Amino acid sequence: MKRTFLILILAAIPAVVMPLAASSQILPGHKSAAEGDETVYKNEVYAGYAYTSINQVNLSRSGLQGGEVAVTRDFGKYFGVTADGSFYKYAFANPEVTNSTLKPSVDMVLFGPELHAVLYEKTIGFVHALLGGEHVGGTGQTPNISFAGGVGGGLEYKLTSRISARASGDVILQSFSVTGNSAQLGYSPHETRNARATIGAVYHF
User: Fold this and answer.
1) Which of these, 195, 149, 138, lies nearest to 175 by C-alpha position?
2) pLDDT tens for residues 170-193?
3) Is it true that domain 41-204 has CATH number 2.40.160.20?
4) How many other C-beta atoms can be found within 10 angstroms of the C-beta atom of residue 194?
5) Exposed e or buried b for every residue in 139-174, given b needs 16+ CB within 10 A?
6) N or C: which end of the chain has fewer CB within 10 A?
């Protein structure tokens, strides 16, 4: 009786160990190929060309060009958290700015939640709400740093499992003090809204 019991135990060990060994070959945070789904990556880095209007600076209606970098960490299928940094320095052709002494620049750092979902095959849509700070240089504004935040979204098209093309836009609000500013230095109302747009590439990992 004991011998039969030991044989049953020995026979049961491979039946338990083999499924565990097979499941251990699946990387954490990724779906099994047997499920019929492609690999799911939890992190992404975005980099691209960017534009922002600068309504807080007088004589600068054309806006500035620059670059934007963002890092997103996904927490589930539809939700993620984004850290976004951007810098804008190069003005579009504008005689009023060219003939003035203003050399405005803008940089901002924003954080916030993101919601995303597959819209159709390789096309993904997303929306986010961002909050952080913005700095305006080259205008003599005092102070030249303000809280900033806004909402936006965009589209992403998957080129490969790791690389996507992205285009997005935001409306960013900020509040620069009028203290110490003049029409010559860059008059700023207490609240302004700037359009922001970017196009570039995403790397998933």
Assistant:
1) 149
2) 999 998 765 455 544 444 456 788
3) yes
4) 24
5) bebeebebebbbebebebebeeeeebebebebebeb
6) N
